[in-house]
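Example 3.
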Amino acid sequence: MDVAFIIETIVKIVVILLVFSALAGFGTYFERKVLAFMQRRLGPMHVGPYGLLQVAADGIKLFTKEDIIPQNVVKPIFKLAPVITAATAFMAAAAIPFWPEFTAFGYKVHPIVADVNVGILYVMAVMAIGLYGPLLGGMASANKFSLISAARSAAVFISYEVITGLALLAPLMMVGSLSLIDINNYQTGGISNWIAVSQPVAFILFWIAAFAETGRTPFHLVANDHEIIDGFGTEYSGMRWGLFFIGEYANMFFISFVMAIIFLGGYGDGSIAGALQLLLKVAFFFFFFLWTRAAWPDIRPDQLMWLCWKVLMPIAVVNVVITGVVILIKQGGM
Amino acid sequence: MFEAIAFYLFAALTIAMFTITVMTSQALYALTAMAAGMIFISAFFFILGADFLGVIQIIVYTGAVMALYAFGMMFFDTTRTVVEKRDNPRVIFILGVLAATLVVFILVSPIISTHIEANYPINAAMGNSETIGLILFTKFLVPFEIAAVMLLVAMIAGIVLAGKKMDKSLTLMAEEEIALMSATQAKPETEEGAH
């Protein structure tokens, strides 16, 4: 382990942290603007040109607000929960390749913090830990609505983990590797090689499950404003509440990256054009999250469970079986 | 050197976390510390180069702890401390220390007899997941299949036990229907009303 490697890794970590915390802030701005335009409003307009400085104003507000710890809460757990949400969101980013390899000042840079050969499994595992944030926050604050939200988050995440796992299994059987870079390299050479073309069912299933994993609108039951106030966030104030938000938006960006890399060809052959395409794909997925929020109502918890266990899971299992048979026939085993 | 530092750091953290799990009387502390301890254990797999097992450790065990949280939510008020019934703390202490010493002795004994050698060392030519798949489906195929059958049996049993009233949905029923249903069922099936 030489010094250059350590310095390089630290620089990469700092860059990812800074870029994505800033993006998470701007994510709230994009969301408000997109929702506003879809509903024929203007959205934030007063702070700065087109309300661009609204993010800064919100940040200052969150940072300077009093940090209230209510009576009867379990203090250490209550304080820990938002940190878990934000930290796991960023930890998941360690195995995501954000950009193809490039050479800067004669030094070859791999824009991935840790190129482990079980990349996608690691990302999904760490994102799964992220649900401890809402769960602990809900259970530690002595509040009925928070407790309901914690119960819902446990149910939703345990259920939809199954869907993501099974949906991913079929593409992984084709690629034969868990590394996101290998998955990306499998799809070089045009749209017809994309896994979304050969595995459309898995793509749709994973996309649906991504909404549940990030807690976005059709599945936004964990913090449904009109039934359970703000769910696990009800008792929180100031920056602790803000950390939940940073975690949620960072998760949206990271899962968009994962979807773009696994199903839509990623950065392709590694040229600058390919890298820009990756960013466009990520932007599309992020926009789709917002679009769905404007277009769809929330569904009930029992409908969510029905969708998961009676519709999506059987489809995912059948998809895995069919993929296995097709691979077997192609290899000439039958 | 980095490996040694990482090992001692995670060893200390793991022991601290599981100590909290055992010692505390607050259900939330115990469960959170247990989840954290399970994640810290995965670090040992990463240090040994077994990335796949490390990630599986995170997925499986934190998922299992989450189920415990769900039970905690049903059975306790998790914001209150649990009052434990200790009739004779000295006996529990002595038995605990004895059991712990025994476990340490059992686990450490291979060091005394021979030096530890890996039965299936990591093969640099193959990836982690391939190696595990190869060993599972050649050397340990029968235990693997038996485990699969047992899980299937447990799953079917779970569905049979839980699926008694799956065709009715309380959300879609009117209040009177629910009252009628609970009134008719309260008398013949007394143990049903308990949960």
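The first strand of chain A starts at residue 102 and ends at 104. Chain A has one domain: 3-330.
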